[in-house]
Write a structure and sequence with these properties.
- The protein is of the alpha/beta class.
- The protein has three domains: 188 residues, Class I glutamine amidotransferase (GATase) domain (Rossmann fold, 3-Layer(aba) Sandwich); 189 residues, HUPs (Rossmann fold, 3-Layer(aba) Sandwich); 102 residues, GMP Synthetase, Chain A, domain 3 (2-Layer Sandwich), CATH 3.30.300.10.
- Strands 2-1-3-4-11-10-9-6-7 form a nine-stranded mixed β-sheet, sandwiched between helices. Strands 14-13-12-15-16 form a five-stranded parallel β-sheet, sandwiched between helices.
- Helix 5 crosses helix 6, helix 6 crosses helix 11 and helix 13 packs antiparallel against helix 14.
């Protein structure tokens, strides 16, 4: 744990939940400094020298009924510090306090649920605005017997102990996930817990920027850094942040892998030459990327191949610059949580990202990832703090592997050209109708199937494309954008008429979860 933290902060103990960082996000919104630590690192010595004002136990994929479930090396519940257990954290707390947790055919609960208040407690102050409140459940076990001193605060149809509390010992547990968007008033739970713990409320994005700049200066010193520049918001903010820390020792490298959107490479060159006084090296490597991707269908292999090629190119360019020690990347928390556990906890890998799980195990450069704990909207706020223009900051996310993971199945130059045209028409239509800023991310995919069509008097047998647009706050969950039917009809007609190789257009209605935003 860092010694520079405020005296009254919140410690989040990670048990491998996919949404642990959302807990930190909710606390940041309340201007509370917090740190996430994997449960394995919580030792008595470490804990004693970094005494937090409050502790939150995260959810996780394990079961406390199992003989091998994640445990703490000592009992933090007897230290007089306020503790909030979420899902698995509630169940672990119950087990540690000699309560009981059980599992049966009726104990599973996934998705939206309604809970009713049965008792009063400071933890639910202002939470129940209605007789029943919507929460988000995701569990297979339930608390079946409360520990001594606890009382039931709220119940759902399946979880009789949806909220529990021992107000004298300042111990609280919730079966649902107050950190996710679908728990309507979840932020109130965290606000109440912060007030109970007495944690300081002085964390801001400007303070995060200052701390990051100081941290980069301390780590890099006078060494040289290259920054992997994609042209997206994340890598640009990373570049500006590092530039403010080390100035002349930064070189940005943009690798054109032939998988970018329409005119993207030219726009990136123009933007960085006109807007930023940062050294930029542009590498045209499309031939080698298409060669290595030839015949590859598996999306994980695509990401691994692209990740390895990026690193090889960066290492080659670093040798040209000479004595480069660090590689900077615009990795965000949603990238990390889908690839690996952010804090080393036992979370499940959803997919590797080329700048997370797609990197080779051995490389000559040390990584700098100053945005690794942030969400996209937080990165945009950081960009504003750093003086980056609003138009650039509000660009939709674009994946590092580019159009390769939107070209389902085998990647080829021909299919990428078709996809690029479809994507450009779709986004242009969105901008034409002033919808761009209302949508989190919009893009097209080309499917690995062909269908029969009729164009004029001729039979066609061409590719199918699928359009996708979602709204989101942080990229962890997403809802399908509800276009007007006439918009979709006009866009589909325009694509079929103007893009040779497409004779059918579909629209993706899947939310996240169960789907991810990108298809691969």
């Amino acid at each position: 744990m860092k010694k520079s933290k405020p005296e009254k902060y919140i410690l989040i103990i990670d048990f491998g939940s996919q949404v642990t960082q959302l807990i930190a996000r909710r606390l940041r919104e309340l201007k509370v400094y917090c740190e996430i630590m994997p449960f394995q690192k919580i030792t008595k010595k470490e804990f004693k020298s970094n005494n937090p004002a409050g502790i939150i136990l995260s959810g996780g994929p394990s079961s406390v009924i199992s003989n091998y479930h994640p445990k703490l090396s000592f009992n933090i519940l007897k230290r007089g510090i306020p503790v909030l257990g979420i899902c698995y954290g509630q169940q672990l707390m119950t087990s540690m306090m000699d309560g009981e947790v059980s599992s049966n055919s009726n104990s599973s609960e996934f998705g939206k649920a309604l809970i009713s208040k049965t008792n009063e407690s400071p933890i639910i102050k202002g939470f129940f605005k209605n007789k029943k409140e919507q929460v988000w459940m995701s569990h297979g076990d339930i608390v079946s017997k409360l520990p001594e001193g606890f009382k039931i605060i709220a119940s759902s149809k399946i979880s009789p102990n949806a909220i529990i509390a021992d107000d004298l010992k300042l111990l609280y547990g919730v079966q649902f996930h107050p950190e996710v968007f679908h728990t309507t008033n979840g932020k109130k739970i965290f606000e109440n817990f912060v007030n109970i713990s007495g944690a300081d409320k002085n964390w801001t994005m400007s303070s995060y920027a200052r701390k990051s700049i100081d941290s980069i200066k301390s780590e890099v010193k006078n060494e040289k850094v290259i920054c992997a520049l994609s042209g997206g918001v994340d890598s640009a903010v990373t570049a500006i942040l590092i530039h403010k820390a080390i100035s002349k020792n930064l070189t940005c490298i943009y690798v054109d892998h032939g998988l970018m959107r329409e005119n993207e490479t030219n726009e990136i060159k123009k933007m960085f030459k006109e807007s930023f006084d940062i050294k930029l090296v542009v590498v045209n490597a499309s031939k080698i990327f298409f060669k290595k991707l030839k015949g590859v269908k598996n999306p994980e292999r695509k990401r691994k191949i692209i990740g390895n090629l990026f690193i090889k190119i960066f290492e080659r360019e670093a040798k040209k610059i000479g004595n480069v020690k660090f590689l900077a990347q615009g990795t965000l928390y949603p990238d990390v949580i889908e690839s690996v556990s952010f804090s080393g906890g036992p979370s499940v890998t959803i997919k590797s990202h080329h700048n997370v799980g797609g990197l080779p195990k051995k490389m000559d450069l040390k990584l700098i990832e100053p945005l690794r704990q942030l969400f996209k909207d937080e990165v945009r706020n950081l960009g504003k703090e750093l003086g980056i223009s609003k138009d650039f900051i509000n660009r939709h996310p674009f994946p590092g592997p580019g159009l390769s993971i939107r070209c389902l199945g085998v990647v080829s130059e021909k299919k990428i050209k078709i996809l690029r045209k479809v994507d450009n028409i779709f986004v242009s239509q969105i901008k034409k109708y002033n919808l761009y800023d209302k949508i989190w991310q919009a893009f097209a995919t080309i499917l690995p199937v062909k269908t029969v069509g009729v164009m004029g008097d001729n039979r066609t047998y061409e590719n199918v494309c699928c359009l996708r647009a979602v709204t989101s706050i942080d990229g962890m969950t997403a809802e399908t954008y509800k276009f007007d039917h006439d918009f979709l009809m006009e866009t589909a007609t325009k694509i079929v008429n103007e893009v040779k190789g497409i004779n059918r257009v579909t629209y993706d209605l899947t939310t996240k979860p169960p789907g991810t935003i990108e298809w691969e």
